[in-house]
Hints:
Blueprint: E1 2-5, E2 8-12, E3 31-38, E4 43-49, H1 51-60, E5 66-77, E6 80-87, E7 90-95, H2 103-108, E8 117-121
Parallel strand pairs: 2-4
Antiparallel strand pairs: 1-2, 3-4, 5-6, 5-8, 6-7
Amino acid sequence: xxxxxxxxxxxxxxxxxxxIPYNEGDDITSVVVENVYDEEKHRYKILLSLTPIYDNFCKxxxxxxxxxxxxxxxxxxxNAISVxxxxxxxxFLVPLKxxxxxxxxxxxxxxxxxxxxxxxxx
Length: 122
């Protein structure tokens, strides 16, 4: 995926984006993991990744911990339902089983509204 950074463009590899369904024009919070000047082409090669952001999140949260995040939308994939949610400007694709009640029930009833605060089990 090509990402615009002001006057620059950068490459964000799909495996570093964790299957989050980004659309053209979406804001992405990421980390520059490579910034090398190419002498021949007279430009910088910039590589972005979300991995350091997710690694930092995992370091600061215990498995099973409950966190509050914002519901963005429901994603229906091959026999699975997930939620696209935001926590501290980080997007997460959350499987239905990670949602706490009553949010799991509301999701299956299709009654969640964008911006709803969700409680997730990490």
